[in-house]
Automatic annotation (TrEMBL):
Oligomeric and partner information: Heterodimer of an alpha and a beta chain.
Coiled-coil positions: none
Taxonomy, superkingdom: Bacteria
CDD domains listed in its UniProt record: MM_CoA_mutase_beta (cd03677)
The organism of origin for this protein: Amycolatopsis pigmentata
Domain Methylmalonyl-CoA mutase alpha/beta chain catalytic: 61-131, 214-459
UniProt cross-references to InterPro entries, sorted A to Z: Cbl-dep_enz_cat, Me-malonyl-CoA_mutase_sm_su_N, MeMalonylCoA_mutase_a/b_cat
Name assigned to this protein: Methylmalonyl-CoA mutase family protein
Pfam families attached to this UniProt entry: MM_CoA_mutase (PF01642)
């Protein structure tokens, strides 16, 4: 018997906990050998392959940055420093978000100020800590009625009317002590130039900043908005490079009106996109602080931190299967929090469709609340710090973004680079590469290009009409596939059925199931219904009964070699106007008109199939 309050000897924890101490230290070569075996068993290893198996698993970002499958202490990066100290990679505040988390910022853009006011009050009563308003200046008073402005920072996005909007907001803040008035006035003539293609003078924005500098320590006059470059299809480092170049232009304008570098820098708030690529988002935000610290240092001041507002990417949102957007924005919000953003906005899952409803706004708001309050995500300062992958990626992103920034400076600065078309040309190159990856489904979009639901009923929302247009394009990655789905919906409404493709299974289920699944997934991404009768003795008769006009053969390479040519001929005799095959191109006879396979141009296949089926 043991005495009360004591534990048996064998139940007591060891003085020092050891991890895998009984195993020998693994070598990279051992891991590579294991990976090679797995790739061989899965059929992913090319014949006579003698190279490094890591090369088969590596990926490349749109910036040309290599993403390796394994990172170790050998992947060196510059010291990240300490939180709250230059170069601010690990965060702009020593305590991070451990005390107060991040600013949970909600966006409102409804044209009716009464509706906006009701929604704003609901958000503030249920967890939101600041408000971002995209409304006309004359709507501000009604939209903010009943809002305690001393407790809720207001961030404006008034477009070219920023001077009038600032006057109205400052009058609303007249009863608030100057030390408590917080938010941003939203002046961004460079962002307007990017959005509209029209010139805007930086002078009024600089004068506005000079007018509040020193009087309102928590109020910022200018927003450096990276979203125009992101939404134009730009890469992470192109967004960063253009944003830093815009900030440098503002820094010059502000110091020209008499502000010091330090005072000028405190008038800027940076807005960046947070995407579902969580590691790139984390690295981007960490790298952005490093770049800005270097800029302020070489500008004659001390290295300064950066006020960051992260917004979940509008470009990644889908109109089809929009509920998946909840997952995308959750991952993006997680990344923004881990990356150290001081303010985060989660766009509602229906934002790509139109003006969000109350349910969508509640989910967006509660996404942040769960990560902050239940997951305690902000309770750890720089939780990604020390990760070999994150530290190396942060350094790679910082260096690539600095090259983008310095190239823009060589063009004469961001204004000149926008006017000459240099920035637009760089973004167009990345947009073309992104479009190609989306078309081939290398860049997968769940619920749209992958695993679509043809029975889904599209959501209807009150349309949102942007008054800003004419400059850099705004894209959504899913749009091309969604336009094909729209054509299918119109065909269904007119003819009572969707366009369809017959899946002809060859061989046993073990031989054809994987390619049946692949083909069905691909065709349904274009709104094309697939008819799959399973294994049948008379494939031609099954095709006739299906009512389809196009067939796709699905089987193994062995069954293709034995049966594809004959089955294709029989399907042709049964009335098939085209016969495709799920597999890499090979010689199977004249009856095969097209091949569908992993990495093929799915958008081109789907478009041509709809045209063959007479879908308008």
């Amino acid at each position: 018997m043991t005495q009360a309050g004591t534990a048996p000897e064998d139940a007591r924890p060891p003085e020092e906990l050891s991890l895998a101490a009984e195993f020998t230290a693994p070598r990279r070569a051992d891991w590579q050998a294991l990976v090679t075996k797995v790739l061989e068993r899965s059929g992913e290893l090319p014949p006579d392959f003698e190279g490094d198996p890591e090369s088969l698993l590596a990926a490349t970002t749109y910036d040309g940055i290599g993403i390796q499958p394994l990172y170790t202490a050998e992947d060196e990066a510059p010291p990240a420093g300490f939180p709250g100290l230059p170069p601010f990679v690990r965060g702009g505040r020593p305590e991070g978000g451990a005390r107060a988390g991040w600013d949970l910022r909600v966006l409102h853009a409804h044209p009716d100020p009464v509706v906006t006011n009701k929604a704003v009050l609901a958000d503030l009563a249920n967890g939101a800590t600041s408000v971002w308003l995209r409304v006309p200046p004359e709507a501000l008073g009604r939209a903010l009625q009943g809002v305690h402005l001393e407790a809720a920072p207001i961030v404006l996005e008034p477009g070219e009317d920023y001077e009038r909007a600032a006057d109205i907001l400052m009058s609303l803040l007249s009863d608030v002590p100057s030390g408590e008035a917080a938010g941003a006035l939203g002046a961004d003539p460079i962002g307007l130039r990017a959005r509209t293609g029209r010139p805007y003078d930086l002078g009024p924005a600089a004068a506005l900043a000079a007018g509040i500098a020193g009087r309102y320590p928590k109020l910022r006059a200018i927003v450096v908005d990276g979203l125009p470059f992101h939404e134009a299809g730009g890469s992470d480092t192109q967004e960063l490079g253009a944003s830093i170049a815009a900030a440098v232009a503002y820094l010059r304008a502000l110091t020209d009106v008499g502000l010091s570098v330090e005072d000028a820098a405190t008038q800027l708030e940076f807005r960046f996109a947070a995407t579902a690529d969580q590691f790139l988002t984390i690295a981007k935000l960490r790298a952005a602080r490093r770049l800005w610290a270097r800029v302020t240092e070489v500008s004659g001041g001390t290295a300064l931190g950066m006020r960051q507002h992260a917004v979940t990417s509008p470009a990644m949102l889908t109109r089809r299967d929009p509920w998946v957007n909840m997952l995308r924005t959750t991952v993006a919000c997680f990344a923004a929090g881990v990356g150290g953003a001081e303010a985060v906005t989660v766009l509602p899952f229906d934002a790509a469709i139109g003006l969000p409803d109350s349910f969508a706004r509640r989910i967006a708001r509660n996404t942040q609340s769960i990560l902050l309050e239940e997951s305690r995500l902000a309770g750890v300062i720089d939780p990604a710090g020390g990760s070999w992958y994150v530290e190396k990626l942060t350094d790679d992103v910082a260096r690539a973004a600095w090259r983008e920034f310095t190239e823009i400076e060589r063009q004469g600065g961001i204004v000149a680079a926008l006017d000459s078309g240099f920035v637009a040309g760089r973004l167009a190159e990345t947009r073309a590469e992104r479009s190609a990856r989306v078309a081939t489904r290398e860049h997968q979009i769940t619920g749209v290009s992958e695993f679509p639901d043809l029975a889904e009923k599209p959501l209807a929302r009150e349309p949102y009409v942007s008054a800003v247009d004419g400059g850099l394009p705004r894209i959504r990655y899913a749009r091309a596939y969604e336009e094909l789905r729209d054509r299918s919906d119109d065909h269904l409404a007119e003819h009572g059925e969707r366009p369809k493709v017959f899946l002809a299974a060859l061989g046993s289920p073990a031989a054809h199931t994987a390619r049946v699944t692949f083909a069905a997934n691909l065709f349904q991404a274009g709104g094309i219904e697939t008819v799959y009768p399973g294994t049948t003795d008379d494939v031609a008769e099954a095709f006739r009964e299906s009512g389809a006009r196009i067939a796709c053969l699905c089987g193994s390479d062995r069954t293709y070699a034995e049966q594809a040519g004959d089955v294709a001929a029989r399907l042709r005799e049964a009335g098939a106007t085209a016969v495709s095959l799920a597999g890499k191109p090979a010689e199977y006879g004249d009856g095969i008109t097209e091949f569908v396979y992993t990495g093929c141009d799915a958008l081109a296949v789907l478009t041509s199939t709809l045209e063959k089926l007479g879908v308008k």
